[in-house]
Write a structure and sequence with these properties.
Rossmann fold, Hypothetical Protein, Haloacid Dehalogenase-like Hydrolase, Chain: A, domain 2, 15 strands, magnesium ion binding, 10 helices, seven-stranded mixed β-sheet, 2 domains, about 270 residues, eight-stranded mixed β-sheet, Putative phosphatase, about 35% helix, HAD-like_sf, alpha/beta
Length: about 270
């Protein structure tokens, strides 16, 4: 019996129109009614998850959320922070230096200022639009070294990001959790901050065994939680690397693949 289900949002729970299907919603509500803890695990900030959480009636003291690729895990009802793994202003400046060297756009999430960027660009505006955020333009070099940063991102079309990802210095891979949440997002987080450690932390907090955890995802930032899961489910629309980590391939995000997996293994 699976007691915890962690579900990615974009490309997984949400269809290409960024909508939760009625079938997905009902399957999640039915799983919760059986006593299963269902959580959303996303690279999004909390602000960009609230509407989905509300639709899924995940607003009680028994509900949790993993946002910013699990950099922050919190109880939705009480607001209690279960885990917080951040980086710093010094880290943001380091990634910004790489962005300048490779002629790539950059943004970060600051605990104080929210979404920040040295220069607004198409994908920062995209991030702001889908999450309902305000953009603050600032030179990262002016940040205090100790400034609390949730994550820093390189943001540009895949033809710009892919060569950077392919040639990323090994020291950066060691110092940060580096994940691809979308073809146009390369994210740098605390080395202990990924969806795998996030789901593990929550499972341990709830006294749930690894074998009782089911995770559903479609992209690079889901790999760690798929590796951790007792049952790893990949979407039909996932890339081949993601599918290779799965115990089961469900239907696509446009065909209510999340619901189909929950109906098969939980309901």
């Amino acid at each position: 019996m699976y007691k915890l289900i962690a579900i990615d949002m974009d490309g997984t729970l949400l269809n290409t129109d960024k909508v939760i299907s009625n079938r997905n919603k009902q399957a999640i509500l039915d799983a919760k009614a059986k006593g299963v803890t269902v959580v959303l695990a996303s690279g999004r900030p909390l602000e960009g998850m609230l509407d989905s959480l509300h639709q899924l009636e995940m607003d009680s003291n028994e509900d949790y959320v993993l946002c910013y690729n699990s950099a922050i895990i919190r109880n939705i009802g009480t607001g209690e922070v279960i885990s917080e793994r951040l980086i710093s202003g010094a880290d943001a400046k380091r990634i910004y230096q790489l962005a300048k060297e490779r002629n790539c756009n950059c943004q970060a999430f600051s605990k104080e200022h929210g979404l920040i960027t040295p220069k607004n660009s198409y994908y920062t505006q995209h991030e702001a639009n889908i999450n309902g955020l305000t953009i603050t333009e600032m030179d990262f070099d002016t940040l205090e070294d100790s400034h609390p940063i949730i994550k820093t991102m390189l943001i540009d079309p895949v033809e710009v990001l892919q060569p950077i990802a392919d040639t990323l210095p090994e020291i950066l891979k060691q110092d940060y959790s580096v994940v691809r949440s979308a073809p146009f997002f390369l994210e740098f987080c605390n080395p202990l901050s990924n969806k795998g450690t996030g789901v593990q932390t929550l499972a341990q907090h709830l006294g749930i065994k690894q074998s009782e955890v089911m995770c559903i995802g479609d992209a690079g930032n889901d790999h760690d939680m798929l590796k951790y899961a007792g049952l790893a489910v990949a979407m039909q629309n996932a890339d081949d690397e993601t599918k290779s980590l799965a115990d089961h391939i469900t239907d696509s995000n446009n065909e209510s693949g999340v619901a189909i997996a929950i109906e098969k293994f939980v309901l």
